[in-house]
Amino acid sequence: MKRTGPTDVQVRKLMRFLRKASRTYNVEIWRDIAERLNAPRRRRVEVNVSRIQRYTKAGDIVVVPGKVLGAGSIDHPVTVAALSFSQKAVEKIRSAGGECISIAELVVKVPRGSNVKILG
């Protein structure tokens, strides 16, 4: 049987980092995100800015275990951590007062994972 899942070295390192953080801080959210990243690339989630607008309020922290795309608009500041962002998505999130960070940066910023929403 052929192995599926990520072959990208950076994604595999991120998954190991998330599993280790899950064990270190005894938090299941990082293990859940690592398992979602373990899916093949064609099954990874893509979330539009409009979905982030719909399911968040000002000041929320969101994790997307995939890519954030720029369709739609957002009018409140949120912190979005994702595997990757399109250029339009970064522009729209930052113009609303939010910030775009990597998933590893979020683990360092909020190690316990409290008040973090998973979209996707």
UniProtKB/TrEMBL annotation:
SUPFAM superfamilies per the UniProt record, alphabetical: Ribosomal proteins L15p and L18e (SSF52080)
Domain of life of the source: Archaea
UniProt domain Large ribosomal subunit protein uL15/eL18: residue ranges: 12-119
Listed GO biological process terms: translation
UniProt keyword Cytoplasm, yes or no: no
Keyword terms of this UniProt record: Ribonucleoprotein, Ribosomal protein
Any GO molecular function: structural constituent of ribosome
Similarity comment: Belongs to the eukaryotic ribosomal protein eL18 family.
Species this protein is from: Thermoproteota archaeon
GO cellular component, one term: cytosolic large ribosomal subunit
Official protein name in the record: Large ribosomal subunit protein eL18
A Pfam family matched in the record: Ribosomal_L18
InterPro entries membership: Ribosomal_eL18 (IPR000039), Ribosomal_eL18_arc (IPR022947), Ribosomal_uL15/eL18 (IPR021131), Ribosomal_uL15/eL18_sf (IPR036227), Ribosomal_uL15_CS (IPR001196)
NCBIfam families in alphabetical order: PRK04005.1
Name of the coding gene: rpl18e
